[in-house]
Structure formats: C-alpha cells, structure tokens
Design goal:
The chain has six helices and five strands. The mean pLDDT is 90. The chain has a five-stranded mixed beta sheet with strand order 3-2-1-4-5. The chain is of the alpha+beta class. Strand 1 and strand 2 form a beta hairpin.
Length: 129
C-alpha cells in the first residue's frame, strides 16, 4: 500500500522516510535506537481533509498509514498542515518555529518530538516536494 496520497502532496516524504529505513538495516536499527518512540503525524490539506501516518521507531522501523500501530498508540502526535509539513521536510522551516507560531501542535512527549528532526532530514535528500 502506498503511503503517498494525491490530496496530500507532502505525503511523498513518508514514502522517502520509509524507503530510507527499509534500504539500510544498520540505519534502521540506529533510527530505532535514537528515536525509541512512535511518532504520529496528522496533516490537514487545503480543502480541510485530514490524514494520518505514523513512524514506528520503537519496534519495526517503518512508516505506515493511520494514527498508530494496531493495539498501540503513538508516543508523540504532531498535527500541522500538509503545506507546513512539506516545508519542514524540505528544510525550508524548522519544527520549533512552527511550534512557536502555533502552526504545529504536539501531543504527548515533547522531548521525544525533538528526536524526529534527524529522521525528517533523511527525507530531505530523497523526497521531491
């Protein structure tokens, strides 16, 4: 199942992150060790639709659609617009700036949210947003 959704252009980044995690076993294990959490993203597009993805850096080291793994829940939930997520992944803005301006809402362990930045940087090199 593709992680990319037509109505969410920045969702291509989730494909890139997943591809990066799946392509290199040592990198995947390193990401799990550093992340040690499940990060959920709820994006809202310009028509008001919302969609969710999660990055499991606790067990699997994979990206999937939904708010969290079956029978589990995310440690951190980040809610923002599709456009702002695209800018964040492309390195055009920082999560901290979005958070301070109220464009990024974080539920759960905020300290774990800071561990997400290196993972998103992997998508910068692979995603064409």
């Amino acid at each position: 199942m593709s992680l990319k959704l037509k109505s969410f252009p920045s969702s291509a980044a989730f494909e890139a992150i997943n591809s990066s995690l799946q392509s290199d076993e040592s990198e995947r294990k390193d990401a799990i060790k550093k992340g040690n959490a499940i990060f959920a993203f709820t994006l809202k597009n310009n028509t008001g639709e919302t969609a969710s993805w999660y990055i499991d850096l606790k067990k699997e080291g994979a990206v999937k659609r939904g708010e969290g793994p079956e029978g589990g829940k995310a440690d951190v939930i980040l809610s923002l617009s599709d456009e702002d997520f695209g800018k964040m992944v492309a390195g055009k803005t920082q999560a901290q700036r979005l958070f301070m301006s109220g464009k990024l809402k974080i539920k759960g362990d905020i300290m774990k949210a800071t561990k997400m930045e290196p993972i998103l940087k992997k998508a910068q090199t692979k995603a064409k947003l």
